[in-house]
Amino acid sequence: MRRVSPHLVFGILLCFVAISSASAQVARVFLAGTGNDAGDCTNQATPCRSLQGAVTACPVNGEIIVLDNGGYGGATITKSLTVNASAGVVAFIARTITVNIGATDKVVLRGLSMNGAVFHDPNGILFSGGGTLVVENSVIAGFLTGFDPGVGILQAAAGSNLIVNNCELRNNDNGVLNNSGSDTNSNTVIENSRFEYEGVGVASIATANVSIRNSVFANNQTAVIASSSSQTQPGLIVIDTCTIAHNVTGINAYTASSGSAVVRVTNSTIYHNTNGMVATSPGAAIESYGNNRVTANTNYSTFSGTVVPLQ
Questions:
Q1: Does residue 274 surpass a pLDDT of 60?
Q2: Smallest Cα–Cα separation from 192: which of 153, 221, 164, 170?
Q3: Is the predicted pLDDT of residue 24 greater than 80, yes or no?
Q4: Sheet harboring 186-191: ordered strands across?
Q5: Domains in the chain: ranges and CATH
Q6: Whole-angstrom Cα distance, residue 293 to residue 179?
Q7: Radius of gyration of the chain (CA)
Q8: Which of 24, 56, 197, 242 has the fewest other C-beta atoms within 10 Å?
């Protein structure tokens, strides 16, 4: 049997290492205020200048790393990727980020500072199609259009999943709005977030399951609202371990025609709102698990009923 030269084996291994190293480098794209979209954005020394340029250069399932403070503009994202601005880096975005991805795709937006007061775009993040969008460690403010309601995060994708974690939303017409207009259910999970000085903090319209946990709603016109205008488009919001205080209306459930809108509340504090819990239309209900603290609301401090006891 002919022996294989050790030098040949070593050379082959070096080729594999080089190929693997190149692949790892290509999976990352860099973004900086001093960058240039015409450069090789996979090289940290020659980063992209705009978010759209970085999105275009980023491969599927790749990561865009924001290197320093700067304004990076909006973007349209049509593939799985992650945008990551580390703590201490101000990745300023004043235009809409549109996420329109496939049903099995996932986009993560982390560490963004978004403000709609500059260009008055109607939406901060428009989730118009696809699988899963995760928004983390971000501030979204100032999406007040004065015409159509401005929305911090608009989930308009039927059958989609939106996860919002550790975010601050303030001074928007709507903070997070789940409104696909479809009979197909879409899911929203919100954790560890703050909603302040909003027209509406969190709203669901049409077929939606929304879970809000460990979050604060203060000084809003309405903190949380579930709305439905069709029996085929029911809305359900579950509020767990939240503080809802100093709003004009704390929780509102509203229906039109034969719709169904239900809000269920557990282990939460609802106090010092002008209207605590408003559910006056047929098919609308705000239900308690029997372990909430409700006090000092001027009006509407009574739940519609009690959910099945805790188990």
A1: yes
A2: 164
A3: no
A4: 28-31, 62-66, 81-85, 106-110, 132-136, 161-165, 186-191, 208-213, 235-240, 261-266, 284-288, 305-306
A5: 70-306 (2.160.20.10)
A6: 30
A7: 23
A8: 24
Tell me the C-alpha distance between 296 and 132, whole Å.
39
What mean pLDDT comes out for the span 157-166?
96
Tokens of 83: 């945008």
- Side chain identity, residue 276: G
Share of residues in the chain with pLDDT > 70 (%): 89
Burial class (CB in 10 A: 0-12, 13-18, 19+), 22: exposed
Q: Indicate if the pLDDT at residue 20 is higher than 90.
A: no
Confidence at residue 18, expressed as pLDDT on a 0 to 100 scale: 41
Range with lowest mean pLDDT among 14-28, 205-219, 247-261:
14-28
Six token digits for residue 122: 């109607």
Give me the mean pLDDT over the 191-211 stretch: 94
Q: Extract the tokens encoding 231.
A: 């029996």
Tokens of 193: 């977030």
* pLDDT at res. 21: 42
Could you tell me the two tokens for 173? 């017409």
CA dist., res. 201 & res. 184, Å (int): 23
What proportions of the chain, in percent to the nearest 5, are helix, strand and coil?
10, 45, 45
What was the pLDDT predicted at 149?
77
The dihedrals phi and psi of 151, each to the nearest 5 degrees, come to -130, 130
**Distance of alpha carbon 245 from alpha carbon 198, whole angstroms:** 13
Q: In the chain, where does DSSP find H-type helix?
A: 6-26, 51-57
pTM of the model: 0.90
**CA–CA distance, 267 with 154 (Å, rounded to integer):** 27
> Identity (one letter) of the amino acid at 121?
D
CA 70/CA 41 separation, integer angstroms: 16
Cα–Cα nearest to 67, from 82, 53, 49 = 49
Dihedral pair phi/psi, residue 220, rounded to 5°:
-100, 160
Kindly state the DSSP code that residue 244 receives in the 8-state scheme. Answer: E
